[in-house]
Amino acid sequence: MHPVGGLGWCYSTLLPTLDPDQPLYGLQNRGLDGSTPLSASLPELLTGYAEQIRAVQPTGPYRLLGYSMGGVLAHALAVELQQQGESVELLVLLDSYPVEVGIKGELSKEQVLTDMFQAYARMHGDPDDVPDDPAETRARVVAYMGRGNSESRLLDDERRGTVLDVLINNVTLVHPVELGVFKEDVLLVAATENVRSWADPRAWEPFTAGGFERCEVAATHEGLLAPEPAAEIGRILSKRLVK
């Protein structure tokens, strides 16, 4: 399941250490083409993903994986499939945690854009005073997205703007959601470097009722799917998938 930006490219680094006969399908956000309307609700988003999964494999058992916010989406989809009578035998969360209770709630798209601008500005050591013109704020966020090591650096400004729209929409859909309870096995892969305050495995306790296993990988949250830590994740998954 794609992380917050809607692209699934990041999971390609898992392939070298997975069994060549083990398929890995990356779900991407609709709307990345710049013309398909974005989902108006989380149930609508999940319904589309369930349809894509069933087009490949009509019935379970399924195995779902998601990194960062993608793990929250994967959990929500697993619960949805479960409620439809399907088995999701394994849910893999790559340094993914529920939205903290204290900040959960509705967010406007304008607030998400402002928060992104300020976060990027601080990251790069720039002043974080938000421009008066929302168009300028958006343009500067698009420019920031082209810096660093994310997939967005490979895109031009227009396509980065489309990814930004998808990202903002995903945040507004997920931020207020009340998660259900997933009743089968969960594997949490936790990054161990520069651990954030919200990276608390106990946050999943109200939303899981099956087996819960936690593994650690030496990486930051942002660097978890870089080649070296991704290779370790691939080895962890390979062992887990043959159980």
What does this entry look like structurally?
The protein has 243 residues and is α/β, with parallel strands linked by helices. The protein has two domains: 1-105 and 176-243, 3-Layer(aba) Sandwich (Rossmann fold), CATH 3.40.50; 108-171, no CATH class. It has helices at 42-56, 69-83, 109-123, 134-145, 157-174, 227-241; strands spanning 62-67, 88-94, 185-191, 212-217. A four-stranded parallel β-sheet has the order 1-2-3-4, with helices on both faces. Strand 1, helix 2 and strand 2 (88-94) form a beta-alpha-beta unit. The longest helix has 18 residues, at 157-174. The radius of gyration is 18 Å and the shape is globular. The mean pLDDT is 93.
Runs in which pLDDT lies below 50 for 5 or more consecutive residues are none
Query: How helix-rich are the residues, as a percent range?
Result: 25-40%
How many E strands? Answer: 4
* Order of H and E elements: HEHEHHHEEH
Radius of gyration: 18 Å
CATH fold node name of the largest domain: Rossmann fold
Distance between the termini: 22 Å
Report strand order across the widest sheet.
1-2-3-4
CATH superfamily membership of the largest domain? Alpha/Beta hydrolase fold, catalytic domain
Global mean pLDDT: 93
The number of helical segments is: 6
The assigned structural class equals alpha/beta
- CATH architecture group name of the largest domain: 3-Layer(aba) Sandwich
Globally, the shape reads globular
